[in-house]
Structures are given as C-alpha cells and as structure tokens.
Amino acid sequence: MIQRIKDWRLERRIKRLSRKSIAYMQSGDRAMCKVYWGLMVDAINRRSPAQVRRMERRMGISHA
C-alpha cells in the first residue's frame, strides 16, 4: 500500500514537472525548459516496476 502512495505522488510530480517544462518552452526560456525536462525524465525513470505494469495494463500492453 505504501508503494502505491509513493507511485501516486511520483506521478503527480511527473505531471507537475511536465507542465513547468511546457510553460518554459512556451515562454521561450529553453534553458529552464531543459532543466525541468531533465527532472521529469529522472522522475519517470524512478517509476516502480509495479507502476509500469499497471500503466501497461491500462494501455492494453500484455507481457505473456
């Protein structure tokens, strides 16, 4: 259960970082866009294997 909460919080962080990156890109600040993009990529790479499986299941991806 604790892992599910951690996964939920991480997904919220990923969405927040994505919105920040997009906002900086739209404002023309490429340097800050790259900073937030890098932070988002790092957060995505920290997803738990269980979270990845849940996401794949929702998308219909099956690993038999």
Structural description of this entry:
This protein has helices at residues 2-27, 30-45, 49-58. It is 81% helix and 0% strand. 5% of the residues are buried. It is elongated and about 40 Å long. α1 packs antiparallel against α2 (30-45). The protein is mainly α and 64 residues long. The longest helix has 26 residues, at 2-27. The chain has three helices and no strands.
Give a quick rundown of the structure.
The protein is mostly helical. The chain is 81% helix and 0% strand. It contains three helices and no strands.
Count of helical regions: 3
Biggest β-sheet description: none
Order of helices and strands: HHH
**Poorly predicted sequence stretches spanning 5 or more consecutive residues:** none
What is the typical, i.e. mean, pLDDT? 95
What is the radius of gyration computed over CA atoms, rounded to a whole number of angstroms? 14 Å
Can you tell me the overall shape?
elongated
* Secondary-structure class: mainly alpha
- What percent of the residues sit in helical stretches (DSSP H or I)? over 70%
Distance from N terminus to C terminus (CA atoms, Å) equals: 25 Å
Strand content: under 5%
Count of DSSP E strands?
0
Secondary-structure blueprint:
Blueprint: H1 2-27, H2 30-45, H3 49-58
Helix pairs in contact: 1-2
